[in-house]
Specification:
The complex is a heterodimer of chains A (about 230) and B (about 500). Chain A is of the alpha/beta class and about 230 residues long. Helix content of chain A is about 25%, strand content about 15%. With about 500 residues, chain B is of the alpha+beta class. Classes of the chains: A alpha/beta (about 230), B alpha+beta (about 500). The structure holds iron/sulfur cluster.
């Protein structure tokens, strides 16, 4: 018992002050592309180092890149239209309490791992009233990762149908947005919106936990307006 | 028929013509004899378009000799099957099922010819009795995890049988590898299993390097080895956290969870990705550490080492933890041999099976990391091996930081050799990863075979829960933490 208390004391307080403060990202972090010369589709981008080497864009340190409409995924110049808030009715319903159900539909487990991380003490998703639940019947929103393999299509549809109305769908990662690295394989659909309608797209391969958090809070209108 | 055995080493390429071609009877005998003589099936797969001349390749690892024997069998046109090895060599069971699914060749006499990644018309094993009930779980699970289906036959709380059906994550990766450019293939290799990016990508790169006679710069070898150990650390620590969550030891679970993040963040410092993406490329690596970063890494690693030691000490000295982990989900030593289990699952049963030692390649030829084992084969043993390996990985990293060679980071590979074959293995944090590549006369990859350690080890989970309580399933499952994506490809 004492051991546990001593250890607890040693470990200290670890939750970051986000969104009041955004922790710095290391120099090699590949965030939202800026200085985009030709159009770059954030939903297809795998955020690999070489992609920027061709000179079409540079990676910034900005982690924010969730959008509400598929067209907004195409970046030009320095800006993109980040996700807007839900409409008033939805905001009233979900603004302070959002229950999500996650379905992995063929991802590599990278995106799932980063979603999982939003739960740990450092990010502490639950302080925003957002929670992952075990059953679609208890969920307000569906978080989808993976390109939707043929083998998961039915299960995904059934999960979606099992959720009560109104419902939100969030596609996390390149796979769920466009098929990602598996785009074009005969075993997959190229993204979640080929099966269910999507309300929020969070790009990345995988997106950083803060990118996911930013997307969720943006949708719920929980971020400072000036951002 | 006698023939000259053909041996290869990890990370080697050779002309396809060098591989002995045997008839069915001698092929079978050779597999059985070499497996009886301390060999182990590392890969067994079919190559050749449907209905054409299919060739089956066997790669048998001689762990104690550090080399692998490769041989093949040409299936005569018109033949639709071969005699199954599984009844006499259980470790062939999944390989043979995979051959059937991928090539259409049937392993005749296979005791359990069920699909691997395609699901049509399959009915699960059932025990018919009024007292036995069935529990079906998945493919969509309660947590944020990958999909798979578990079918339990239970008598009250006791699990009589667990059948696992996977394939939901099947993305057609092997097939894609034959169709896409090498630049894209490396990105797919990074996505075989998102928690084992370095393991799979380094094996992929090593195959391309072998097939193009590319010398990897020493600095790149070192960075790859460091990244592999960093990946192991992050996952082992994360798994210990997951075990703590499952037994309700929440403070410790939170500490482990945060510590895992420290290691992932080190990976992001190195290559911009928390999971090691964009680090390994055919010919070398894209990033290294400069002086300032080395100091920063050392400082952060020393801190993490101290934290890990404290938390692990607390976890492993708490009696209620030990009583929950000990004797739960036990696997026998024999099962490891019979089923060809690999990685930390094997080591937790006392088998010193480790690619870094047995088939050392890259930096591991010069820096030997001692193999960590435990003997009891239960959840406790698997947790303990993780703890020991995490400690050794930190030691290795601290030592390596002082010895990063200077020089080039990447030598661009040239054209691949035509009609050749290459084999590369890596000890991922779960265990042995094996990639085999075959090129055609145009130097294109015409067959790419991937084996994730989960392919060998899922069967171990079924065995671990047999005879136990169904409520122990989550704990057993976490103690292996196998990859669905890696199995399903
Ligand atoms: S987007 Fe990238 S990280 Fe996410 S599931 Fe797909 S391959 Fe994995």
């Amino acid at each position: 018992m004492w051991q546990i208390l001593i250890n607890r004391f040693k470990q200290g307080y670890r939750t970051i002050a986000y969104p009041k403060q955004v922790p710095g990202f290391p120099g090699r972090y590949r965030g939202r592309p800026v200085d985009v010369k030709g159009p770059v589709n954030l939903g297809e981008l795998l955020f690999n180092e070489e992609a920027a080497a061709e000179g079409c864009f540079t990676y910034s340190k900005d982690h924010r890149m969730a959008v509400s409409n598929k067209e907004d995924l195409v970046a030009q110049g320095d800006e993109i239209r980040l996700a807007g808030a839900l409409n008033d009715k939805m905001k009233r319903l979900f603004g302070r309490s959002l229950k999500l159900r996650q379905v992995c539909a063929g991802g590599c487990n990278g995106c799932e791992a980063e979603i999982q991380v939003t739960n740990i003490v450092v990010f502490d998703l639950s302080r925003f009233g957002i929670q992952f639940v075990a059953s679609p019947r208890h969920a307000d929103g569906l978080v989808i990762t993976g390109p939707v393999t043929k083998n998961m299509e039915l299960a995904l549809k059934k999960t979606y149908e099992a959720m009560p109305h109104p419902k939100i769908v969030i596609a996390v990662g390149s796979c769920a947005i466009s098929g990602g690295p598996f785009r074009g394989s005969t075993e997959v659909r190229n993204g979640a919106d080929s099966v269910v309608p999507v309300d929020l797209y969070i790009p990345g391969c995988p997106p950083h936990p803060l990118t996911i958090l930013d997307g969720l809070l943006r949708m719920l209108d929980r971020l400072e307006k000036k951002q | 028929m006698s023939f000259e055995r053909f041996y290869v080493h990890n990370g080697q390429a050779w002309a396809l013509a060098q591989v002995p071609v045997l008839d069915e009877v001698s092929f079978r005998r050779e597999i059985l004899e070499s497996c009886a003589a301390a060999g182990r099936l590392v890969s067994l797969f079919a190559h050749g378009p449907k209905d054409k001349n299919i060739c089956i390749y066997a790669v048998v690892g001689m762990d104690h000799e550090g080399r692998l024997s490769v041989f093949s069998m040409q299936v005569p046109a018109g033949k639709t099957g071969f005699e199954s090895l599984t009844p006499v060599l259980p470790q062939a069971h999944l390989f043979e099922r995979e051959i059937a699914e991928q090539s259409g060749l049937q392993p005749q006499g296979h005791p359990w010819p069920k699909p691997v990644r395609r699901h049509q018309n399959y009915s699960f094993y059932q025990i018919h009795s009024e007292e036995v009930h069935e529990v079906a779980v998945g493919p969509v699970h309660a947590g944020i995890i990958e999909p798979g289906h578990f079918r339990f036959q239970c008598h009250g709380e006791e699990v009589l049988n667990l059948e696992i059906q996977l394939g939901y994550q099947h993305r057609g990766i092997e097939k894609m590898m034959e169709e896409i450019s090498l630049e894209r293939a490396v990105l797919v290799a990074e996505s075989v299993a998102g928690d084992t990016v370095i393991g799979h990508t380094s094996a992929f790169c090593s195959n391309i390097e072998a097939l193009s006679d590319t010398q990897v710069p020493l600095q790149a070898e070192m960075i790859r080895a460091m990244a592999l150990e960093l990946e192991r650390l992050a996952n082992h620590v994360g798994d210990l956290g997951a075990l703590s969550t499952d037994i309700g030891f929440l403070p410790v679970s939170a500490y482990y969870g945060r510590l895992r993040g420290e290691f992932l963040n080190l990976s992001m410092e190195l290559c911009g990705s928390r999971f090691g993406r964009s680090l390994c490329r055919p010919g070398g690596v894209l990033f290294s550490l400069d002086e300032g970063m080395i100091d920063d890494f050392r400082r952060r690693l020393l801190k993490a080492k101290k934290d890990f030691t404290d938390v692990a000490e607390l976890f492993f000295s708490t009696p209620s933890v030990l009583s929950r982990l000990e004797s739960t989900g036990r696997i026998s030593r024999q099962a490891v041999e019979q089923l060809g289990l690999v990685g930390l699952t094997a080591r937790a049963c006392g088998h010193e099976r480790d690619v870094r030692t047995d088939y050392a390649s890259g930096m591991f030829r010069f820096h030997h990391i001692p193999v960590s084992t435990a003997s009891s084969g239960d959840v406790y043993a698997r947790a303990l091996v993780r703890r020991l390996e995490a400690q050794r990985s930190i030691e290795f990293l601290l030592e390596a930081l002082q010895q990063i060679p200077s020089g080039e980071l990447l030598n661009k590979p040239s054209r691949l050799k035509p009609d050749s074959m290459a084999l590369s293995m890596a000890e991922g944090w779960r265990g042995e990863i094996a990639h085999v590549a075959i090129t055609d006369s145009q130097s294109r990859i015409c067959r790419y075979k991937i084996k994730d350690p989960s392919f060998n080890n899922w069967m171990a989970l079924s065995l671990a829960v047999r005879g136990g309580q169904i409520s122990d399933f989550p704990l057993c499952n976490k103690s292996f933490n196998l990859s669905y994506a890696g199995h399903d490809l």
